[in-house]
Amino acid sequence: MSNKVQRVVAFACAAIFLVTSCTTLDHVSIPGAETSAAVPAVNVGNSVVITTKSGEEKTFKVTAVEPDALAGKHERVLYADMASLSVKRGDKAATSIAVALVILGVLIVVGADALGDGVEDGLKSIGN
After folding, report:
1. Terminal CA-CA length for the chain
2. What's the pLDDT score for residue 13?
3. Which residues are within 8 A (CB) of 3 and not within 5 positions of it... i.e. 6 or more apart?
4. How far lies 33's CA from each of 12, 21, 23, 36, 68, in Å?
5. Nearest CA to 100 among 10, 6, 5, 11?
């Protein structure tokens, strides 16, 4: 594998890590005695992080918002059992900046290699 391909693969891997790490956790009020909310500000499709009153942390994608619980594919947690509830939200600005920087990095690597190849070809032609 050439150096150029290795560098492009490295930039692509960095891009994947940057883009997937551009999320924030927003704390959401849990329905119950201390809030007047009937259901939390969570929608089907959101990813949530729940800490139960027993201290267990559960992370899952919401498939149903029920009157008494949040449900995922293999999880169902009652609001009464929740100590904290957070929703993972993508940070669009950070993701856009990360993608732009990775694209710029790839272009710089490819351009630098092309320039280096051109200089080497020029030197070879001078030597002949």
Report:
1. 29
2. 67
3. 113
4. 48, 35, 30, 7, 13
5. 11
Cα 97 to Cα 13, 25, 37, 103, distances in angstroms: 16, 19, 36, 10
Mean pLDDT (whole number) for 21-26: 67
Number of alpha carbons in the 13 Å side-chain half-sphere of residue 58? 22
CATH architecture, domain defined by 23-90 = Roll (2.30)
Strand partners of residue 85: 50
Domain extents for the chain?
A: 1-22+91-128, 23-90
- Given a contact cutoff of 8 angstroms between Cβ atoms, the answer to whether 8 and 109 are in contact is yes
C-alpha dihedral over 112, 118, 122, 128, to 10 degrees?
120
Question: What pTM was computed for the model?
Answer: 0.53
Helix, strand, coil abundance in the chain, percent, nearest 5: 45, 30, 25
